[in-house]
Amino acid sequence: MAGLYAIIGDRDSSYLKVAAKQLQFFDEEIQIVNEHGFGCSWVSQNNLELFAPALDLQTGVRVICGGRIAWDEPEWQKATKLDRYEGGLSNRLLLDNYLRSGVAGIEKSLNGAAVVLIWDPRNQQVHLLTDRFGYYPVFLYQPEQVNNCVIASFPDAIADDPATETSWDYVSMAEFLWQGKATPPHTYYQEIKYAGVATHCQWDLQQQTFQRREYWQPFQAGFFANLSQAAEQLTAAVSHSIYIRTLPRLQPTVSYTSGGLDSRVILFASAERDRLSGLNLYDTPNQESAAAQQLCQQAGVEYIGFPRDEDYYPRWLHLGAKYSGGMWSAFDNHFLGTREVVCGKLAANTVLSACSTDFLFKFANLERRSAKFLGQHLPWMTFGSKWNGGFIDPPMSYNHALPPMYGESIRQRLHEWFGDVPVYFRNDLERLQVEDKRNRPMCYAAGLSFPLLFNCFPYDTFMADIAIAECYSQTPVKWKLNASLWSLVSARIGGEGIVDANYGWRPGASKSEQLLKAAINKVKRLQSPPPSNAEGLATQGSWPNMGWYVLHSPTVRQIWETTKASDRQLITDLLGRDPWQVPAEHWADRFNTRCFFNILTLLSHQAGRASSKLDNKEAY
């Protein structure tokens, strides 16, 4: 695993050593700092020469980074000459910027999915800054108390510290079962909260004060004048972001690759394609894997197919719940089982994906409905006029009522997070503001698995780039709904030769082309009835039929049938009904399977937490 664990105030080094072990699941490097007023454990699988914490011996100022900052090659070369500092090149640059420009220098430099932690002994201050989209997870324990405040990338590690006192937050657990995520800033522990997105936190040990402010917000500088301008600027931002994240010093690189419009941009914008591998997951080779292979061949990138076995997701359920802290569903645990190949056989120094494109530049977090003409469905979406009252993707809360024991608390949290949103949208800015509250922080995104990726891989995401954040801030909502903007960007970077495997038309296709292709696809479906094993595991897309596991996986059956009575009662209370009284066929239905896997995730997490704190107390 990877991450950081910092304590403000004085604490014995043994606490930091045990915390480091809590964050080390594989063979990551560990560095521990313990000075008067500040201590930190840093655990990472990133290249130490590039990303290790930095120290200025003259002032004693330290910079510790969780995640990665991306730099242009001239900046990396500049860092090699900053020999007055110790540590990794990236953090030397951050340290130099801080000493020259203060916190403002860090805000301008935080170009990536990362948190930056600064210890400045000159004025006895600690600074924490989070990235603009909140990709990298970081949580706080009792920040207002200053002394003995804990800053950590993993809530369970804080809860396991014998010096902390935590209690379960059952409202967050109920939210996870109901909507696939806890409402930020909450966690499974009442005393541990998310630090904030695009946020600067400051602790002053001399004054015993804590301050917090947002240093960036979207939608403040107006919007793109036209689609052509937006496509030009976003194409440039995406291309440059990928390029600087695939420089020779950061390779070998592995990119999770599908046949859609998103991941292909990594293949074609990479700095050196001969040291890039496109990894495609499937159950059996299908149209998605065929498109991914074609894309790799056209880009001159090594294609690697990764066939999943018939118990892939259930087999990785327990470790996935452990490594993600149980707040992200096993339903989305696509990548943990590839770690041996990615970090072992391929020896990747950088792992990339395009996971959040659907959220930031498409319609995943927008109210929408299928467009119709004369009662017939068209291959596009149109805006929904009414706010659903909470989050959208994945759309779980539509399927069952709020649990009676926790429903009012959930409503209150949603109101606190979203504020006073009108029932019916009055303008496009309101749509964007609601979408933004669903998007950020990305480390909470349901349907994605960023915390697990950061914890288990040398992971980075090109979407965390500052220039892309500025494009996000200036993109009108109308160009997101049917991927109008992103389709043009994908076509400009990756070309139009290979169709989108999800829809069958080429990137940048006109509406008339899309309509014609949709009609052709419909005729083909009518002429070719589905195979007899249509309810099997494999699909034509990237992900399997998850309901198949409910009915056929011995691992799932064993977990479900051997759950303790106390855990059954907990899940029943959190869900508002007894899921064990429902036939398996109900949970195998595609509208219910995600909720089922959320239950399995929470059960696995609770089982792993049962003796964890007791074990840690014995370590001291």
UniProtKB/TrEMBL annotation:
Top-level EC class as recorded in UniProt: ligase
Assigned EC number: 6.3.5.4
Pathway the protein contributes to: Amino-acid biosynthesis; L-asparagine biosynthesis; L-asparagine from L-aspartate (L-Gln route): step 1/1
Gene Ontology BP annotations: asparagine biosynthetic process
Catalytic activities: L-aspartate + L-glutamine + ATP + H2O = L-asparagine + L-glutamate + AMP + diphosphate + H(+)
InterPro entries listed in its UniProt record: ASN_synthetase/amidase, Ntn_hydrolases_N
Key words of the record: Amino-acid biosynthesis, Asparagine biosynthesis
Coiled coil stretches, renumbered: none
GO molecular function: asparagine synthase (glutamine-hydrolyzing) activity
PANTHER family attached to this UniProt entry: ASPARAGINE SYNTHETASE (PTHR43284:SF1), ASPARAGINE SYNTHETASE (GLUTAMINE-HYDROLYZING) (PTHR43284)
Identification of the protein by name: asparagine synthase (glutamine-hydrolyzing)
Organism: Aliterella atlantica CENA595
Taxonomic path: Bacteria, Bacillati, Cyanobacteriota, Cyanophyceae, Chroococcidiopsidales
